[in-house]
């Protein structure tokens, strides 16, 4: 299966009516680890589905899955395996026991923290993969916080972020947890330094050490930073990428704040999805099929973005979380051998909470000039009020239907015959907007774990199809270096090399 053949199939698909395609090809919903995916409203005919699966075989997607789970070097530029999956499974071999032990250690530490009633607040300081995962987890299960703990987060280098996180807290009853895999991230070190000063000025250096817990894959740097302060440090493995580290000790704050058993359910849910991805044949493999759909929609149908619409209050942070996971993993144009990626790679991932988005960007989705595949995540929950659950579900299904089928001028004229022509035309919904529906009955910790694991594997397999390395992030370095160079410029000690930047510095003075 060549790119030309796929492009010819895409040309045919673009000339088709989505409504007709959806009627002609109704793939059975795919199920895994408690989730069901309906992909019937995509520009994928039976012929395209077969072609994509043929391409997947040709590119040995099954081998890529085996590589991941056998701890092969899937991150060649850093010469590392990617062992996030190992943190959620009992050690299957000595290969992963070391990494798995770091999560077990964190769970033990969290058990002790949860039992420590002298701690009434935990402040989690970290950014990116050292923040989004725990923050998503905390927001999803905010109604299940252990009663005596208040959990706050601080990520940004904007000083207000830490000030708000510490506002009103008693240093004597507060635990500061600093998460940084590299222990070299400016924002985190800045906030940790200020938080340590906050503790020391209230408690003195010796007692302050009992209110500080660091989690890192770089203990030497942490020890140097602590400069003799005997604070506790937990490990996180170098072989687990930051954006794949929610399963690691990076989550020790949420392990403690929501209870270790809940977190074990979360890990078990992910392990359930791992078993599916590891064993299911490609045509039934949810991660492989969704990766192929991303590959098809982005690289052949030419859709430049994908909107994740979380029709579940518990999942309102999921689009933010997935932005780092997918865009920091696959927002690349050069592959591991230094070759240009042969096709357009990862789309812009954006989205928000349903039904809230219907009062914001859904106008754009329905009648804008851009076609955007949408992904509805529906987890209505059965313990909530029936009317609200019914409304949420009805809105999700209605939005997907109208996005796909639109509303034609003839339908409008038939339903509203007295409308002036120029108004009737403005009411046309073009339709032809594809969507995937991912749904589960209730968003439990296990289902959240399964969902995140699904997206991790989908991201990795899409990277394989795009012939890029999903596990490094060279694109974040230059900006950091440049920011360091601009600080003396802002202090007036030197001029910026770039004239436009220098002009801006002068405006900001
Ligand atoms: O954005 C760059 C990045 O390195 C992310 O990959 C990472 O999750 C984040 O910064 C924080 O890094 P660290 O955990 O090393 O502080």
Folded structure, characterized:
- With 509 residues, this protein is an alpha/beta fold.
- It folds into three domains: 3-70 and 280-466, Glucose-6-phosphate isomerase like protein, domain 1 (Rossmann fold); 84-265, Rossmann fold (3-Layer(aba) Sandwich), CATH 3.40.50; 478-508, no CATH class.
- It has 20 helices and eleven strands.
- The chain has a six-stranded mixed beta sheet with strand order 1-2-11-10-8-9, sandwiched between helices.
- The N and C termini lie far apart (58 Å).
- 6-O-phosphono-beta-D-fructofuranose binds next to loops.
List the helices and strands and how they pair.
Blueprint: H1 3-14, H2 18-24, E1 30-32, E2 35-41, H3 46-58, H4 61-69, H5 94-115, E3 121-125, H6 132-140, E4 150-154, H7 159-166, E5 174-179, H8 186-208, E6 212-216, H9 219-226, E7 232-235, H10 252-258, H11 260-279, H12 286-299, E8 305-311, H13 318-330, E9 348-353, H14 362-367, E10 374-378, H15 386-405, H16 409-415, H17 421-426, E11 435-439, H18 445-465, H19 477-490, H20 499-508
Parallel strand pairs: 3-4, 3-5, 5-6, 6-7, 8-9, 8-10, 10-11
Antiparallel strand pairs: 1-2, 2-11
Helix pairs in contact: 5-10, 6-10, 10-11, 11-18, 12-18, 13-18
């Amino acid at each position: 299966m060549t790119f030309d053949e796929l492009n010819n199939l895409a040309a045919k698909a673009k000339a088709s009516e989505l409504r007709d395609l959806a009627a002609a090809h109704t793939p059975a919903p795919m199920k895994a680890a408690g989730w069901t995916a309906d992909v019937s409203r995509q520009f994928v005919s039976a012929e395209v589905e077969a072609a994509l699966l043929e391409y997947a075989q040709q590119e040995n997607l099954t081998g890529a899955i085996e590589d991941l789970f056998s701890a092969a070097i899937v991150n060649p530029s850093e010469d590392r395996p990617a062992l996030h999956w190992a943190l959620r499974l009992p050690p299957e071999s000595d290969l992963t026991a070391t990494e798995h032990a770091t999560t077990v250690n964190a769970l033990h530490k969290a058990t002790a923290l949860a039992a420590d009633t002298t701690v009434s607040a935990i402040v989690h300081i970290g950014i990116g993969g050292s923040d989004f995962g725990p923050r998503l987890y905390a927001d999803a299960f905010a109604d299940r916080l252990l009663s005596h703990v208040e959990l706050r987060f601080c990520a940004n280098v904007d000083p207000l972020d830490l000030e708000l996180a510490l506002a009103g807290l008693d240093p004597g009853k507060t635990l500061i947890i600093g998460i940084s895999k590299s222990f070299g991230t400016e924002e985190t070190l800045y906030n940790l330094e200020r938080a340590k000063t906050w503790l020391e000025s209230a408690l003195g250096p010796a007692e302050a050490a009992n209110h500080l817990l660091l989690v890192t894959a770089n203990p030497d740097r942490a020890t140097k930073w602590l400069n003799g302060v005997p604070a506790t440090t937990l490990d996180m493995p170098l072989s687990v990428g930051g954006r794949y580290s929610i399963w690691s000790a990076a989550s020790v704050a949420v392990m403690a704040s929501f209870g270790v058993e809940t977190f074990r359910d979360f890990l078990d849910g992910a392990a359930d999805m791992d078993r599916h991805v590891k064993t299911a044949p490609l045509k039934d493999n949810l991660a492989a099929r969704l990766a192929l759909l991303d590959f098809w929609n982005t690289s052949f149908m030419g859709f430049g973005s994908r909107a994740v619409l979380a029709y579940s209050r518990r999942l309102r942070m999921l689009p933010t979380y997935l932005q780092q996971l997918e865009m920091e993993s696959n927002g690349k144009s050069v592959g591991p051998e230094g070759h240009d990626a042969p096709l357009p790679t990862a789309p812009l991932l954006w989205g928000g909470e349903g039904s809230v988005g219907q009062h914001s960007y859904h106008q754009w989705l329905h009648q804008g000039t851009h076609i955007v595949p949408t992904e509805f995540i529906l987890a209505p929950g059965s313990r909530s009020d029936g009317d609200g659950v019914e409304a949420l579900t009805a809105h999700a299904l209605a939005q997907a239907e109208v996005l796909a089928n639109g509303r034609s001028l003839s339908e409008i004229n038939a339903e509203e015959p007295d409308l002036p022509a120029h108004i009737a035309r403005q009411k046309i919904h073009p339709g032809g907007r594809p969507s995937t529906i991912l749904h589960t009955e209730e968003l439990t910790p296990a289902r959240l774990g399964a969902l995140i694991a699904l997206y991790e594997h989908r991201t990795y397999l899409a990277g394989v199809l795009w012939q890029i390395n999903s596990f490094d992030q060279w694109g974040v370095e230059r900006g950091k270096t440049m920011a360091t160079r601009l600080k003396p410029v802002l202090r007036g000690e030197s001029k910026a090399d770039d004239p436009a930047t220098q002009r801006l510095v002068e405006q900001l003075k």
